[in-house]
Amino acid sequence: MLKSVLIRIMIELSIEIDSYKDKGARRRLTEELNQKGIVDKQVLSALNTIPRHLFIHKDFRSHAYLDKAFPIGDGQTISQPFTVAYQTQILHIQKTDKVLEIGTGSGYQAAIIAEMGAQLTSIERHKGLHESAKKILSQLGLDARLLLGDGSSDISKAFGPFDKIIVTAGAPKVPMSLANQLAIGGTMVIPIGDEKEQLMHSLIKKPNGEFEVIPLTKFRFVPLIGEQAW
Predict the structure, then answer these.
(1) DSSP string covering 122-159, please?
(2) The pTM is what?
(3) How many CA atoms lie within 13 A of 176 on its CB side?
(4) What is the pLDDT of residues 27-39, one digit of tens each?
(5) CB-based contacts of 188: which residues, under 8 Å, 6+ apart?
(6) 202 catalytic, yes or no?
(7) Which stretch of DSSP H or E encloses residue 26?
(8) pLDDT in tens, 142-199
(9) Active-site hit among 19, 62, 79, 122
(10) Residue pair 93/164 in contact by the 8 Å Cβ criterion
(11) What contacts 86, CB < 8 A, 6 or more positions away?
């Protein structure tokens, strides 16, 4: 009797956390993203695995797998899945990579990177978002180092240099405190522009220490706030 009750409770919790309906919606979302140009199989696999609905407010639960951004509090948003996938695809993340993320936010992008097997360090300046992200990643069994502080500074320097750096907020320019943490041959992806619209950029650190800067396409992010940002 007790065993059957426990099994039923476990099934109910499993359905609440990640139902068959959620999994089907994720599968359709990844197919949509593939049609939009996301072709990296590791990225698509991670997006198909991570339950995005856990990272947004319950009021948006039924819309979790639409390709849309949603507010998450503190004036921040969870980026639309295409944006998450686009930035991740640019980085060509490998399991041996040390990755720095600036702007943990909801933790969804961090979860995608951690699911891909990289050694992730992620920084968030809002304590509430930082603590929430830690809780969800722990719940999912994902390993990541989450720090609270100014991501535009060099507080992550002790854990670098990094093979990849991803900035998930719009900056007025490239913070050199971050660029200098790239390993030789490393790549940074960062949106640069004003507070309304930014142009995504990829920076590759060359053997002589200089950077190859590649402008990509337009996006709209919340502003990066900090010592070397807005």
Answers:
(1) EEES-HHHHHHHHHHHHHTT---EEEES-TTTTTTGGG
(2) 0.90
(3) 2
(4) 999 999 999 999 9
(5) 164, 165, 166, 167, 174, 178, 179, 182, 202, 203, 205
(6) no
(7) helix 20-35
(8) 999 999 999 888 888 899 999 999 999 999 999 999 999 999 999 999 999 998 899 9
(9) 79
(10) yes
(11) 37, 38, 200
| Position 2 pLDDT exceeds 70 | no
The set of residues, in sequence order, having a beta carbon less than 8 Å from that of 13 and lying 6+ positions away, is none
The tokens of 204 are what?
């590759």
Domains of the chain (ranges; CATH) run 67-219 (3.40.50.150)
Distance CA 137, CA 54 (A): 10
Residue linked to tokens 């300046």: 125
Report how far Cα 138 is from the mean position of its chain's Cα atoms.
16
Are 190 and 217 within 8 A, CB to CB? Answer: no
- For residue 219, what are the contacts with CB-CB under 8 A and spacing of at least 6? 83, 170, 191, 197, 198, 199, 200
Burial class, 212, CB count within 10 angstroms (exposed 0-12 / middle 13-18 / buried 19+): exposed
What is the predicted pLDDT for the residue at 227? 79
Q: Quickly count: other Cβ atoms within 10 Å of residue 98's Cβ.
A: 18
In which band, very low, low, confident or very high, does the pLDDT at 13 lie, cut at 50, 70 and 90?
very low
Q: What are the φ/ψ torsions at residue 121 (nearest 5 degrees)?
A: -120, 125
